[in-house]
Design a protein that fits this description.
Oligomer: single chain
Radius of gyration: 37 Å
Helix content: 25-40%
Shape: globular
Strand order of the largest sheet: 10-12-13-14-15-20-16
Number of helices: 33
Largest sheet: 7 strands, mixed
Number of strands: 23
Strand content: 5-15%
Distance between the termini: 37 Å
Length: 1206
């Protein structure tokens, strides 16, 4: 947020004695000049003083006098126009008078039947047009913006009669606008106004507002003329006394009811704020942009709690951060956190909730200033294009660069006589590009995008983009497309994916997915010259896969087909709104995508994948700190954008077919699973789904990891038995056992072992933080518990029975290692191990009888290699010699000796104290009071399944949804692309998500209250609902359902022509050949350019946050682009890796950043106490070791660091 300086009018309203006393206390004279300020601020280069290697030279492009003049003019114009953005936004979103956006779009006189509109309104204009020109900095002054906004409302008041609602709304908005402009003029600053400054003033002169409105109302009775509107605007803008309406006149009385509503009488303005003066700016005004102290955006912090879902932390709120800086939680999510943080690994330094650090998100980072070495005048480092890591402390301001102190306005503009390539640039205050030579810029500077190396891909894209801008002369000569990064990369495949999926091969054995997937990553950027300097506008990261992966086992001779071979993946797309002209922005961005796909097809790639995933508001993909006026697209808007882009690609013949990822990959693989389940597939591949394309950052990989972790956590908490429990030692019977051996072991653990009193310490993972076991994880390196073993059996994580027994042994050994002999946990561990062996021996006897073994097995080792797959089943039968005898030990009786109804064993299937056992005991003793029976197993299952997942969405009215008419993908545009993405799920095309029910009663689609009676026939009849049995391929099946629900977001684009083509497809093939004819294969296809800041998207974002390279304003975007170009061309330049201010060593993993809390703004009052001058804030970046020795640890926040010195 930009700081506001107090004006002379506001100071005049305050007693001079109070102001002078306040200023004297701050040791600042009222007439003190700029040259009397202190010395220059320390240079960034101080951190590099110990480096023996000198940095690469960085010539400042502003050394050219003509470019400097153009730059300063643009800076001042942008600062002057910037406050109008907030005022215009409030007018366009006014909730009372512009709720439907009547004034935001041009008036369509033909559609509305307004035959005389253009005769009366000679200069039509709307707020949307004003916004477009304002954001493009096409106005030459603030007064032009004010005149256009006034014209919008004057036109509406002129055409519509006084009683018309549009006239009344325009009149109210005009009054609101005039008050806002009056407040902005009173504030006396060009900085962005605050909330209080934009709101209508309570002391605005009614005559000033009445002058503007009455001028139009008087003209209502006059015949319109061609120059009446322009004369009227000149009269209003002149501000002379003759245009003012006397407050006692009839015109003022006409407006009195309107003005009195907004401007109540007998109210006074609040006292003005103290002039801003911090230790960085010292109350100065920049000599170049004429602005005061400006502030950077603090580091991005996103809450990762379950309630926020990745939203940005609110400013001024308390939050909690881990010591490594990777996890942030707001106050609300912190309360619901578990003692052990979710996703924390065993070696995580911040594993527990109690280790989180509490901080407040109120940091204020002021922009750096540099002082003239001769006159000590101060300017922003960004305005002067100053890099403190490279430039020395010597700096001369504009007036001191020449001995005669020539004023910048007197610099002559002379055309260069040196022949050079004709270049064009957009200028602030103009809509059309101009020649660079006409500005008098004699030579091109080194910080230009043209100096970056070219390749065949970038040249082709630039040529195609230039054709989209041909409607504006010379606009195509202002852009430059370059591939700023082309590097080989790889990523590790998660273990969950490798365990539950397989690769397609001709071998009978299962081939696991590769451990590492290799690919090439390109970063394609679009630059545009604005005011003679390059601005990075657009960036797209793409990944190209050739199938050259790393496998753990030898796959030679197995004919393994990689699912991601010859594919490209559009990983990230990001842009800022500084592109000009704005009406070409969408077409240009889409053409970059289409032309790249054309180059990919020409280079032999067959398929392209796109995931339409919009960022959450405030977050960034590539560019740090977008403009506040730039809208973040929602999912639907982004999907429609891709529909238009792919429709353009189909029209050019680049894309031959578009399908969703579910239809192209998952649907076929699910059919293969059904064939294997029915006995039609290869038995050795049962339980493994064919792996979809492995693309880094793709949705389905993250979803597989999430689904697996959620299922594991859910089954660990499947039951919560109390410390007082019942031990069920009834012999096993065949009717209690599942045909799957893995689920038999899970039942044994849950119902036989975990119900024993000795198992209480082993049912859950050990919470070392809650138990204050500080050295637990140092002694126990691999924790294990019964709940985890049970959950892994349920989800099929074990391959053989031997692994289950080994984990139980590990759990027992951990307990005996950490606890001394004689400790109750040590004793219970031996007891649990003996119990488990006894129960497992009983199960082995059933296996012997079921398999027809001639001799009984001595131990479980006979079945040590038995498969624990969920698809492995056996016909279980129990010998008649094993008769169930109920022997149990209970210790949960109530005070009167009766069994407690809260016992966890009451609802336990097969438990001797279950509902059946209790009913028999009550029948044996009629005099005993009967306890209510626990719910039956069928009823429990019905309650458990009630209100759960909806499954595939169906029509609520029971009517059959008719499929829409089939559209032709080659000719029917974006609608055909949408229909192809939907496939057979036609309900996705119906946006009416809530259909009224035809019959009486509650809506079937609404939320059902807990405990309400279901309406399904199975529940009404008392039958147990059928549930789908979990198979070993459950991970792939659940991921497939998630991909299907979001199928419209995952695009699979075919780049290959079909084998049997129709006439239309052959025509598209010819169109593609003509489109890609300009692609030159003889040029370099691979750019020998690699930089640590651009090779990874997150590295570029991290580097931009560290160096405050922001793109929220055009001023900062020019500076950020120039510095990024310098580092791209000089990869070894200083300032990439943060250095510790204490030990001057490179910081790795975590940097501890010192925060400067935002200062509270104070108003000038009669009784205020003098304020002492604020000392200059010294920014500190510390490594982990130096931070541990610092006395003020709470003043620092941890920020992760991934960049390292090469």
């Amino acid at each position: 947020r930009l700081a506001r300086l107090v004006s002379q009018e506001e100071l005049a309203a305050v007693p001079q004695d109070d102001v002078i006393a306040c200023l004297e206390q701050r040791s600042i004279s009222p007439s003190r000049s700029v040259s009397e300020f202190d010395e220059a601020t320390p240079s960034f280069a101080a951190q590099e003083s110990s480096s023996s290697k000198s940095p690469p030279p960085l010539p400042n492009p502003l050394e050219d006098a003509s470019l400097l003049k153009t730059h300063i003019t643009a800076l001042r114009l942008e600062a002057e126009l910037h406050p109008m953005r907030l005022i215009l936004t409030r007018l366009m979103s006014h909730q009372t008078h512009n709720r439907r956006g009547v004034f935001n779009v041009p008036v369509d006189a033909e559609t509305l039947g307004l035959v005389d509109y253009h005769r009366i309104v000679t200069r039509p204009i709307d707020l949307g047009t004003v916004k477009r020109r304002l954001h493009a900095v096409a106005y030459q002054s603030r007064q032009q913006v004010v005149d256009d906004i006034r014209t919008v409302f004057m036109n509406a008041m002129r055409y519509n009669p006084l009683s018309h609602p549009v006239h009344k709304a325009a009149k109210a908005l005009l009054i609101y606008f005039e008050q806002s402009i009056l407040d902005l003029q009173i504030s006396g600053t060009t900085d962005t106004p605050t909330q209080s400054e934009i709101e209508p003033s309570r002391t605005a002169h009614p005559a000033t507002i009445a002058r503007t409105v009455s001028t139009v109302e008087d003209e209502m009775s006059k015949p319109p003329s061609s120059n009446s509107l322009s004369n009227e605007a000149d009269a209003v803008a002149s501000g002379s006394e003759s245009n003012l309406v006397d407050p006692g006149s009839a015109a003022a009385e006409l407006l009195a009811p309107v003005v009195s509503v907004v401007i109540p009488k007998k109210t006074s303005r609040l006292p003005p704020f103290l002039p801003h003066s911090c230790g960085t700016c010292k109350g100065r005004t920049c000599q170049m942009c004429k602005q005061g102290c400006l502030f950077h955006e603090p580091a991005l912090m996103v809450c990762q709690g379950v309630h926020c879902g990745g939203t940005r932390l609110r400013k001024g709120a308390d939050y909690f951060v881990s010591a490594d800086g990777h996890r942030h939680y707001c106050q609300r999510c912190y309360v619901s956190l578990a003692p052990v943080l979710p996703g924390a690994s065993e070696n995580d330094p911040c594993r527990y909730k109690q280790d989180l650090l509490k901080r407040k998100n109120d940091e204020e980072i002021a922009e750096k200033w540099i002082n003239c070495s001769k006159c000590s005048a101060g300017v922003h480092a960004i305005c002067a294009m100053h890099n403190g890591y490279v430039h020395d402390g010597h700096y001369l301001c504009v007036e001191c660069q020449d001995d005669q102190k020539m004023n910048i306005d007197s610099i002559p503009i002379e055309a260069s006589s040196t022949p050079q390539k004709v270049g064009y640039t957009f200028l602030s205050g103009s809509d059309a590009p101009v020649s660079i030579a006409s500005l008098g810029i004699s030579k091109s500077h080194s910080l230009s995008a043209e100096s970056l190396p070219e390749c065949a891909v970038s040249s082709f894209i630039q040529a195609k983009v230039g054709k989209q801008m041909e409607k504006i002369p010379n606009a195509d000569k202002t852009i430059t497309v370059r591939v700023v990064s082309d590097s080989s990369r790889h990523f590790s495949v998660p273990e969950v994916v490798r365990r539950h999926f397989r690769m397609a091969s001709s071998s009978l054995d299962v081939v696991e997915p590769p451990s590492q997937v290799r690919y090439r990553q390109k970063a394609i950027t679009l630059f545009q010259k604005i005011d003679g300097l390059d601005v990075c506008i657009f960036c797209m990261y793409v990944q190209e896969y050739d199938g050259d992966d790393e496998y753990d086992s030898d796959v030679v001779g197995r004919e393994v087909k990689s699912s991601h071979e010859n594919r490209v993946y559009i990983a990230y797309i990001d842009s800022v709104e500084h592109f000009r002209p704005r009406e070409c922005r969408t077409e240009v961005y889409q053409e970059i995508l289409v032309s790249y796909l054309a180059t990919a097809r020409a280079r032999g790639y067959e398929t392209a994948h796109i995931w339409a995933c919009p960022p959450s508001r405030g977050n960034s993909f590539v560019f740090w700190n977008h403009p506040s006026s730039q809208r973040t697209p929602n999912r639907e808007r982004l999907i429609n954008w891709y529909h238009d882009a792919l429709s353009r690609a189909i029209g050019c013949g680049v894309v031959t077919d578009v399908k969703s990822l579910f239809e192209s990959e998952f649907e076929t693989y699910l059919m293969d699973l059904e064939d294997i389940a029915n006995g039609n597939g290869i038995s050795t591949k049962r339980g493994r789904m064919i792996c979809p394309p492995l693309l880094e950052g793709d949705f389905w990989i993250e979803e597989a990891v999430r689904v697996h972790g959620a299922s594991l956590a859910r089954n660990i908490k499947v039951r919560a038995p109390t410390d007082v429990c019942v031990w069920n030692v009834t012999p096993l019977s065949s009717n209690e056992l599942d045909p799957c051996p893995a689920l038999q072991i899970a039942t044994l653990l849950k119902d036989r072992v975990m119900t024993h009193p000795a198992s209480v310490p082993f049912r859950r993972p050990v919470n070392a933080a809650a138990l204050k076991l500080n050295n637990y994880h140092n002694i126990v390196t691999k924790p294990m518990d019964l709940g985890t073993i049970h959950a892994q059996c349920v989800i099929g994580e074990y391959d053989e029975l031997r692994q289950v027994v080994e984990d139980v042994e590990l759990m027992v050994s951990n307990a005996k290692r950490f606890n001394p002999e004689g400790h109750f946990v040590h004793v219970n561990a031996d007891e649990v191990w003996i119990l488990f062996c006894q129960e497992l021996a009983s199960l082995v006897k059933i296996w012997d009888f079921s398999t027809g073994a001639k001799t009984e097995s001595d131990s479980w080792k006979t079945y040590s290699e038995m498969s624990m797959s969920l698809d492995n089943t056996m016909n279980v039968s129990c010998p008649s010699s094993l008769k169930p005898k109920s022997v149990f030990i209970e210790d949960d009786r109530s005070s009167d000796g009766s069994r407690s109804l809260n016992s966890s064993a009451l609802s336990m299937p097969g438990s001797p104290v279950s509902s059946v056992a209790l009913s028999k005991e009550n029948e044996a003793d009629p005099g005993k009071s009967k306890a209510p029976l626990a719910p039956s197993l069928n009823e429990t299952k019905r309650r458990a399944t009630k209100g759960k997942g909806r499954g595939r969405r169906s029509s609520r009215t029971g009517k059959t949804v008719e499929p829409p008419n089939k559209l032709d993908l080659l000719s029917d545009g974006p609608d055909a692309v949408m229909q192809s993405m939907v496939g057979e799920d036609h309900w996705l095309l119906d946006k009416r998500t809530h259909v009224a029910s035809s019959g009486p009663g509650p809506k079937s689609g609404g939320k059902r209250r807990r405990g309400s009676v279901g309406s399904t026939e199975s529940v009404a009849s008392g039958e147990e609902p059928t549930t789908k049995r979990r198979r070993q391929s459950w991970v792939g099946e659940e991921v497939s359902e998630a991909v299907r629900r979001l199928r419209t977001s995952f695009f699979t684009c075919s780049l290959l022509p079909k084998l049997a083509m129709s006439g239309a497809e052959e025509e598209k093939l010819q169109i593609f050949e003509a489109y890609a004819k300009e692609f030159d294969h003889s040029k370099n296809l691979i750019v020998s350019m690699s930089s640590p800041i651009s090779d990874a998207r997150h590295a570029l974002l991290e580097f931009s946050q560290y160096r405050h390279f922001e793109f929220d304003t055009l001023r900062r975007a020019k500076y950020s682009t120039a510095m990024l170009l310098y580092h791209l061309k000089n990869s070894d330049a200083p300032g990439v890796v943060p250095l510790c201010n204490s030990c001057n060593e490179a910081i790795e993993e975590v940097r501890w950043h010192k925060m400067k809390k935002s200062a509270e703004k104070r108003r000038i009052t009669k009784f205020m106490k003098p304020v002492s001058p604020e000392p200059e804030f010294q920014q500190e970046e510390l490594c982990g070791y130096c931070h541990s020795k610092h006395s003020e640890k709470d003043a620092f926040i941890p920020i992760p660091v991934s960049l390292k010195l090469s």
